[in-house]
């Protein structure tokens, strides 16, 4: 890869050139020159020059929660289409949930997922905590850790068994790995379709109470505190995925103030939609955890700004048309989200908030939680970059969509905030749409 980004605005707080226009030369996947705009002179005609005036470049974005169908359900999403969608959405690295067929629970499963891709994207597999992600029997976690599992989770399935959850936390101490759990009491959400509240009553649908989320969080925090008090060395680290309520934000904020090793993420769509959006019964908005109230949405945004919420994820769950073109209560949970994270965030936050606070949730903190070296934008560093702007418009349609699936509530809509390119080592894509 031999590319010069000319006159691009650098977004990298640790650099002396932060928020300044620069020339950035990449050769053979390595940053060879980084200088103020206009100072890099070219003598090699083989270098592709990209006029990036008006655009920004940051360290490559990291998505901590992505679902593909590969292996077993490649008709939903395979590794190649999923990586292409990630690159189009600005992500150079992904943590992939284990809910495939078979579930990611063996060393061979891990080896398959970490193979090199043509796209400028690196996949980090998350291994299942329990066999077949059913919640009742632990996998060979230490072997999976040594094989390359970046973290452990049952992914879309909550860890419902208290004793298994306790043992899993104890195993985390031995590996200094991250345990990720989706907080949900399944007994309180069975057969439910959306958030329990006034809107679910009006629409005549069974609701998922906030209590289902908070009970699970309270249990896990008590278990984490118990194991931490009993531990001799470092405390285990626990991460809650896809929190959705004001009450959850409050519980996690208080746990952090007590010094517990806890972190959490929120799906981008939870920051944009509320349960009011379900009045048209759009099955693409049938997600779990469900879209909640405006009060909850505002609390999630505040949690991002004050640091309670550590990362923002796409929660990408692709589905074939048959899983969504049906009655609302029969539709599969989840939406395709990799390519719409930036447009969502550019609508929810100011440009200053996005560049100074929000991007950190997709660059620095996910890598820190997963014990991955931070990305450097300096001469001699490997290229790991996202090129974007906050104002350009585009439309999500068959031409721009890179996923195999089309289950997005933004389909056919004009969006603002565009990714222009992703660069990872010696692979890149530019002007994707």
Order of helices and strands: EEEEEEHEHEHEHEHEHEHEHEHEHHHEEE
> Distance between the terminal alpha carbons, to the nearest Å?
20 Å
Mean pLDDT figure: 96
Strand runs, count: 18
Q: Treating each run of at least 4 consecutive H or I residues as one helix, how many helices?
A: 12
The second-level CATH architecture of the largest domain is: Alpha-Beta Barrel
Uncertain segments are none
Percent helix range: 25-40%
| CATH T-level fold name of the largest domain | TIM Barrel
The coarse silhouette is globular
Helices and strands in order, then pairings?
Blueprint: E1 2-11, E2 21-27, E3 30-36, E4 48-51, E5 56-59, E6 61-66, H1 79-89, E7 91-96, H2 107-113, E8 122-127, H3 141-147, E9 151-153, H4 162-175, E10 178-181, H5 186-189, E11 194-195, H6 198-203, E12 207-208, H7 210-230, E13 237-240, H8 246-257, E14 262-267, H9 294-306, E15 311-313, H10 341-348, H11 351-358, H12 360-369, E16 384-395, E17 414-424, E18 427-430
Parallel strand pairs: 1-4, 1-5, 6-7, 7-8, 8-9, 9-10, 10-13, 11-12, 13-14, 14-15
Antiparallel strand pairs: 1-2, 2-3, 5-16, 16-17, 17-18
Helix pairs in contact: 4-7, 7-8, 8-9
Which features does this protein show?
433 residues; alpha/beta; Urease, subunit C, domain 1; TIM Barrel; 2 domains; eight-stranded mixed sheet; eight-stranded parallel sheet; 18 strands; 28% helix
Fold and architecture overview:
The chain is an alpha/beta fold. It has two domains: 2-57 and 379-401 and 416-430, Roll (Urease, subunit C, domain 1); 59-369, TIM Barrel (Alpha-Beta Barrel), CATH 3.20.20. 28% of the residues lie in helices and 23% in strands. The protein has twelve helices and 18 strands. It has helices at residues 79-89, 107-113, 141-147, 162-175, 186-189, 198-203, 210-230, 246-257, 294-306, 341-348, 351-358, 360-369, and strands spanning 2-11, 21-27, 30-36, 48-51, 56-59, 61-66, 91-96, 122-127, 151-153, 178-181, 194-195, 207-208, 237-240, 262-267, 311-313, 384-395, 414-424, 427-430. Helix 7 packs parallel to helix 8.
């Amino acid at each position: 890869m031999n590319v010069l980004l000319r006159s691009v605005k650098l977004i990298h707080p640790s650099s002396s050139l932060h928020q300044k226009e620069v020339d950035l030369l990449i050769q053979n996947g390595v940053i060879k020159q980084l200088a103020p705009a206009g100072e890099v002179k070219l003598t090699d005609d083989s270098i592709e020059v990209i006029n990036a005036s008006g655009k920004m470049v940051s360290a490559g974005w990291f998505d901590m929660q992505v679902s593909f169908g590969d292996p077993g359900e490649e008709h939903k999403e395979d590794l190649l289409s999923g990586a292409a969608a990630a690159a189009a959405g600005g992500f150079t690295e992904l943590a992939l949930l284990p809910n495939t067929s078979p579930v990611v629970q063996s060393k061979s499963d891990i080896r398959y997922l970490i193979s090199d891709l043509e796209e400028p994207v690196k996949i980090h597999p998350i291994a299942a905590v329990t066999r077949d992600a059913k919640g009742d029997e632990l996998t060979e976690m230490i072997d999976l850790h040594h094989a390359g599992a970046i973290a452990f989770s049952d992914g879309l399935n909550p860890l419902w068994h208290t004793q298994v959850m306790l043992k899993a936390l104890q195993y985390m101490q031995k590996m200094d790995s991250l345990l990720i759990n989706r907080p949900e009491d399944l007994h309180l959400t069975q057969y439910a379709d959306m958030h329990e509240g006034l809107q679910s009553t009006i629409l005549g649908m069974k609701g998922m109470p906030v209590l289902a989320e908070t009970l699970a969080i309270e249990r896990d925090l008590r278990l984490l505190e118990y194991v931490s008090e009993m531990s001799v060395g470092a405390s285990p680290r626990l991460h809650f995925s896809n929190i959705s309520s004001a009450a959850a934000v409050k519980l996690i904020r208080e746990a952090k103030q007590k010094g517990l090793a806890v972190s959490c993420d929120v799906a981008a769509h939870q920051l944009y939609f509320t349960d009011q959006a379900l009045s048209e019964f759009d099955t693409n908005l049938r997600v779990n955890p469900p879209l909640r109230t405006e009060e909850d949405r505002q609390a999630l945004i505040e949690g991002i700004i004050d640091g309670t919420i550590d990362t923002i994820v796409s929660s990408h769950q692709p589905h074939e048309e048959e899983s969504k073109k049906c009655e609302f209560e029969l539709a599969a949970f989840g939406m395709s989200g990799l390519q719409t994270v930036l447009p969502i965030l550019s609508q929810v936050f100011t440009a200053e908030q996005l560049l100074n606070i929000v991007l950190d949730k997709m660059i620095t903190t996910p890598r820190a939680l997963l014990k991955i070296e931070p990305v450097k934008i300096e001469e001699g560093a490997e290229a790991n970059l996202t090129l974007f702007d906050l104002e350009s418009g585009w439309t999500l349609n068959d031409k721009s969509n890179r996923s195999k699936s089309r289950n997005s509530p933004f389909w056919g809509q004009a969006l603002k905030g565009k990714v222009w390119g992703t660069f990872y080592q010696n692979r890149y894509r530019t002007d994707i749409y």
